Hints:
Elements: H1 3-13, H2 21-36, H3 47-61, H4 66-79, H5 87-107, H6 131-134, H7 146-156, E1 160-161, H8 164-175, E2 183-185, E3 196-198, E4 204-205, H9 208-236, H10 242-269, H11 291-296, H12 300-324, H13 330-338, H14 345-358, H15 360-372, E5 384-386, H16 413-432, E6 434-436, H17 447-465, H18 472-480, H19 491-516, H20 519-530, H21 535-549, H22 558-570, H23 579-583, E7 585-589, H24 598-601, E8 602-606, H25 618-650, H26 652-656, H27 662-704, H28 709-727, H29 739-779, H30 796-823, H31 828-837, H32 842-850
Parallel strand pairs: 1-4
Antiparallel strand pairs: 2-3, 5-6, 7-8
Helix pairs in contact: 1-2, 3-4, 3-5, 8-9, 8-10, 9-10, 9-12, 10-12, 15-17, 17-19, 21-22, 25-27, 25-28, 25-29, 27-28, 27-30, 27-31, 29-30, 30-31, 30-32
Amino acid sequence: MSSVHLESLVTAFIPQARNDQSLRDDLITRCGEILNSHIGHSPETDIGYLADSIKRNLLNTSPNGVPTLRFSNLLSRLLEQPVLSRKHASLLFLHALSASQASVSKGHGALPSLSIPTAPRQYQSPRNATPSDLSSPSNGPKRKSKADLLREYRAKNEKSHIPEALLLRDTLYLLQGISGKYVQFLSVKDPDPNQLVFKEDSRHIISASTKALVLRLAEVGYLYIRVDAFVRESEGKPGIGMIEQSLCHHLQSQLTEYYRLIAVLESQMSSTVPDDDRLDPQQQQPQQKDSREQETGLTLKRLDVWIQEWRLRMRMMSVCVEGARETHGGALVNLIHGYADNGDPFVRKFTDQLLEEVSKPFFATLHKWLFSGDLNDPFSEFFVAVDPELAHLQYVHQSSGGHLGGDGGFGGLGEAEDMAGERDSGLKLWESKYRFHKEMLPAFVGEAFGRKIFSTGKSLNFIRYSCQDSDWVATREKLSNTGGTLQYSDIAGLERSIDTAYQIASRRLFDIFFEKYGLLDHLLALKQYLLLGHGDFADQLMEALGPNLARPANTLYRHNLTATLEAAIRQSSAQNDPPDVVRRLDARMLEYSHGEIGWDVFTLEYKVDAPIDTVLDSGAMVKYLKLFNHLWKIKRIESTLSKGWMRIAGGARTFLRLQDLNPDWHKVRITMGEMIHFIRQMEAYCQLEVIECSWKILLDFVQKKEGDLDALIKAHRAYLDRMVKKVLLSSPKAGREENMLNQVRELFSIILQFREATDDFYNFSLSESAYRDSERDNERGIYTGLAREPRHGPHTLNDILSRVREYGTMFSEKMQTLVQGLQTHPDLDCRFLAVRLSFSDFYKSRREHKS
Length: 851
């Protein structure tokens, strides 16, 4: 290798040799001796053997294996280079050089290190230098750095930088929200980190990079001012909520830690700031510090590193402060929880810690509501709110014996109106005393669990203050054992506690309703009496009240109706029902107008008290009355047709003597049979396909005992709505809801008119038969009494028969219209009713034949 190449190699690896000619010559000489010697040479030219030897040496020096892997990578790249021809010699040279360097470091040889020096040292003359001094890389004249050149340039222009220590002191003031001497906030009342004033003069400046760093640090001070101002405002604000107080407490604890950090930073800065902070105009640069002070002292960059975590904290606290100004209570908890869904682990951890503290008042209120049914929320922060007008009202609770009054439950009309008012208040208390505010519900609870919490607390409150449950202490003991302390960090435990408390409270409430107050017995009584499930009771009541109800409504008296009701109960299987159920049954009249008869205003009433009236509310009782009125009309028509058919069948022998009237009576029987088929199919449809099926669905729900009181109320309302919709043949089309019902009522009216016409025809036939018998007796000379004259005029028979035919035709036409309407009804059961009414397409064939 030529000396020129060695010189370039030495100057490239040893910067000190560039300006030191003697050092450069010595290094070139030593490298030449190494190249010309046979030290480390091996007769082996196998590059693989050499590589294994180098790897063993590397493993001895570095057992972790990292240099060995790096050498293997470099060796593979060297072998792939086609330009180098003497790869083995080059590798052998480098291996010998490294071995020689190690021996020099151990034996204090004269060969200098090839590594770049880490710290400059004072230059010594090579004449007086020892071999160890020559090996130091710091020998030779020191070149000026760019920073030295820049300082010299600024010194010539008579401008110097403000010492960093003074700016550091002002920056610490800024971190505490205080303006410094050289750096100040533009506005004290509303500071902005982007609006800082730097106090410079013609001789002292602050570099742009330093300004940017100070601006970056001033952001923390600006955020601190906002957080501290919020805490101070909240402390002096009256009526602040518990959750906001908890937030302020946590923010204050964070600021206390921040103060500790500032104190530590000020202690670190105390050794770097001069006692007299006045800047000497002649001082061109700060006094040189020793290396230990440079390593441990505080600088702006080190301050930025120290304050980095608090910058993120202050940002999070500032965001929470801004949100807390417009929200409160559960909405504030929900707002903070929204920041937990963040990919930054620091933000997520800080938000979780903040929520853990802020949500403590929320969980305290939740625990009280969930396990005791008491709402302790003086600042309206919970998602359950109480109506102020109903807060101090309690449910109406009658005596446990179930007596409704001194008259055995059959009081006057005014008492019934009072009972209705009590029922309204009971339902209003259950539905309106507590309200669910979705906007105050934290997101980590969820609406489904929020509804369960709302229902559980309301159920416990109902058990305590309405049901007068003597076993409340046992129920509360079960609830207290469901879980430990409710807290944000244990959401899974919170969900388990909610589910368990919900199940215990709901099961206890169901037991109270169905075991203590016998709700199922009352539902069954409503089905048996108001829906005419007791067939013999309905027949007895119809038989006893029939003559009285045919009179004008203004001639009826309620005490007569109640006496008849009691007699019907005693004469039927209803007498075996529980006394508490029988006492609640009453007979009364609706409001009537002029010309109405008893059939139009009579109704049965079933009285309920608290807490049963929460389920059987006034709206439900109105639906029961609507169903009773319709079913009572069906029962009346059935009784009327049955009596008319029995009368016609009993007088058939008499009519056989009137051969000329036999065809007319045959038509009457056909029409009446058609009417009987219609009314019996209607009754079977209402009782079997609607009422019994709906009762089966309700009974299945009751036996499962799932859900809460709201679910029970909903199931009962669905039970009633299904019966009202199907029994009254309601249509979902707007404005046509009662078209089918009106047609059925018209058919009822036609049947009653037809019955009156047949009664007249029956009376005419009896009179005519007696007159003809008397005529035959006179012809035979038999005296049977006074001579009888025809009771009817010559046109009477034609009038009666025309009425019978007219009502029969009207009935057939109305039936065809009804069947056609039911066939296109949206409800499937109503369409099946049309099939039952015209199972052989009787009315369809008649309509086609007529057309």
